[in-house]
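so my prof wants the structure for this chain in the tokens format not the other one, which i didnt know existed until like an hour ago. anyway here's the sequence
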Amino acid sequence: MTEVVVDHREVVSGVPSLLRELGARVRLRNLSVADYVVSDRLAIERKSARDYLSSLFSGRLFDQASRLREAYERPVILIQGYLEEELEEFRNFAAIWGSLFSLSVDMGVTVLQVRDGRSAAEAIFTLARREQEERGSRPRIRPKPRMLSLEERQLFLVAGLPSVGSELAERLLLHFRTPRRIFSAGERELTRVPGIGRKKAREIVRVLDEEFRSSRQRLLEE
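here's what i got, hopefully its the right format
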């Protein structure tokens, strides 16, 4: 039987009950890292779209992602709901894009987005079955690693910008002093930093300034 270790605080979300309906054996535990553990290498942090944005702007997101990455070889953040539906309240598009780039490109954390609780349960169950049936791996609870420092969180955030990376992120932060000043800078200001040419500066500004459109919106418009 497919087994999933679940943090006991997830019971109120209804996802553990849905996992049982799908045929999973659910073991409730007090987890210090992740919400769902499906193998010895893969664990999942589930967040509603609103919680994802709140944790980003409160500074919790990169701490959680870092601990997840240090504890498990294949960390996953599962976003329940659509970020674009919450963007009207959180107008800082630059930080949102930067966080997604940092998580996937720089930190190696897989980010998945699903419609609702049932979709979340189906995604978790599929990952668990794949890990356990194909790899013969069982869920393994790992201890809580250290938290990211403020400096590390800032670097991860800026490194998510197009063609930036960790070394150039540090250079940008030393020049502008804060991530907010980087995100507010124009092309000419960005090119004053060694390693940022006109083409790279233009792409950074385009990603930060262009209005967000989801793939669903594009399909409807075509």
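also thought this was worth mentioning. The chain has two domains: 3-134, 150-209.
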